[in-house]
Amino acid sequence: MTGDSDDPVYYVISDLHIGGDEQLGEVDFLGELLDFLERLATTDEDAELVINGDAFGLWEFTEVDGLAKFDVLTDRYPELFDQLRETGDSIPITLLPGNHDNELAAYDEYVERLSEYNVDLVRAESITRPVGDRVIYFEHGHQRDPNNRFEDFGNPYETPLGYYYNTNVTSRAGRLSERGRFNWLKDVQAVTPTERVPRWLLSKYFYREMNPLLRYAAIPILLLLNISVLLAALAGLDVAGVWTMPVETADAVLARLGLVGEAVHFLLVVNAAIAGVLVLAGVPLYFILRDVGTTVDRFGVFETDLTVDPDEPYTAAARELFAERPETAVFCYGHTHRPLLKEVDDRALVNTGTWLKRLHRRDVVAGVLPPVFYPSYQLCAVRIAAESDGVAVEFEEIEKADPSADEITRTERLLTLGRAPTQTLPDRTVVADAGPESASAPDE
C-alpha cells in the first residue's frame, strides 16, 4: 500500500435531509455546511466529496410533486446551491440517492439540474472509488432496511412503508410544529428508532406543553409513586391489623417534628391514597391491555417494525462484500444516523452519521416520570485516504453549539442529574493488509 499527496482523498457526508414542509425546511446546520463546503473549495488535496444519500428530504414535501420540489429547494436555499457550484468548480461532488430523496433516481432531469451546480448525481444504489490499491464501497444503506427498500430502484411510484411514515407523520409534524408552546414537534425526524416516538411525544408534552401548574403538582406524586405504593400497602396492612408496627413507628417519628412532621405526614397520606387508587385501577387495566396485545399479535397486525437494526444488517452485508471483493477495504453507509467505525473481517465498516439533531433518551432518577430526551449535534465528515501503512479512515468533527442549553428545562436537568449524555466520535482507524491498527465505535 502506498500513499502520497497526489492520491485521492474522499470526504463523505450523508443524511442532511434538507427540505420539507414548513418547519422541516429550517436547516439548523446551514452555516456549518456552507463553511465546510467553502473549506473544501480551497483545499490543496486531490479531494472528492461524496454525499452518501438523503441529502434532501423529498419525502417530506407533500404539497408539491416531481421536479417542483427541486425548484422549492433552489429558491429556499440559494446560498447552499451557490456554494455547491463554487465547491464543485474545485473538486468533484458526487451525490448518491437515499430513500428520502429516491426521486433523484427517477427523473433524468435531476441529473441535468444538479449538474448546473456542479453536482454529479449517480443514479445507482452503490458506487465504488479507488483508494491506493484498494477500493471503497459506498451505499446509503436503506436497501438493508425492509421498510425502506425499493424493489424497483428509481420507480417514482414505489412507496415502501417508510414513505407513509414520513409523509403522514414527519411532514405533518413540520406543518403543526409552530402551534405548540415551543417549536419542538419538527424534531420528530430526529427520533430513532421510531418506536420511541410515543414516549418522546409524552415526554415533550409533560415537560413542554402541559399546564405548568398541573406539571408541578404531578411531579412530587409521580416522583414518589414507588414509595407511595409501598406506603399504601403498609397502610392497608395497618388498617387490617396484620402489621401495624411500620405505620405506628412512622407516626411517632413525624409527631416529634412538629409542624414539619405534620406537613410530611399529610404529603405521604395524599401520595399513598393516590397510589392506592392507581394500583386498584391499574391492575385490571394491565390485564385488559395485555389481552388486547395478545390478540393483536395473534392477527399479526404489527409484525413489521418501523426501524432497522442499526448495526447487524450492515455487518452481515460488509462480511459478504469483503468475501466477494477482497480488494474492498471500507464499507461506507449512512441511513441509521449513528456514527460508527468498527473492524469487520480486518476491514472497516463506517457509518457517516447525520447532520440532523440527535436525541438521546435518559430515564429520570426515580419515580415514574417520563424520560428526558437530550438533543445534540454530531456534525462530521468522514475522511478516507491512502497512506503508506494502509487506508486511513477518520471522522472530522464540525463544531456546533450544544442545543440542550436552550431545549432542556431545569426540571428535566434535575430529574436526570448525572445522566446527561456525553457523545464522542469514533477513533481513527488504518486498514492495512494485515487488518486495522485500531477500531472503535461510540457508545450509544
UniProtKB/TrEMBL annotation:
One of its GO terms (cellular component) is membrane. Gene3D superfamilies: 3.60.21.10. The chain crosses the membrane at residues 213-243, 263-289. One of its GO terms (molecular function) is metal ion binding. Residues 425-444 are annotated as: Disordered. The keyword Cell inner membrane applies. Residues 11-187 form the Calcineurin-like phosphoesterase domain. It holds the Pfam family Metallophos. GO terms for biological process: lipid A biosynthetic process. Keywords: Cell inner membrane, Cell membrane, Manganese, Membrane, Metal-binding, Transmembrane, Transmembrane helix. InterPro entries: Calcineurin-like_PHP, LpxH-like, Metallo-depent_PP-like. The keyword Ligase does not apply. This is Metallophosphoesterase. It comes from Haloterrigena turkmenica (strain ATCC 51198 / DSM 5511 / JCM 9101 / NCIMB 13204 / VKM B-1734 / 4k).
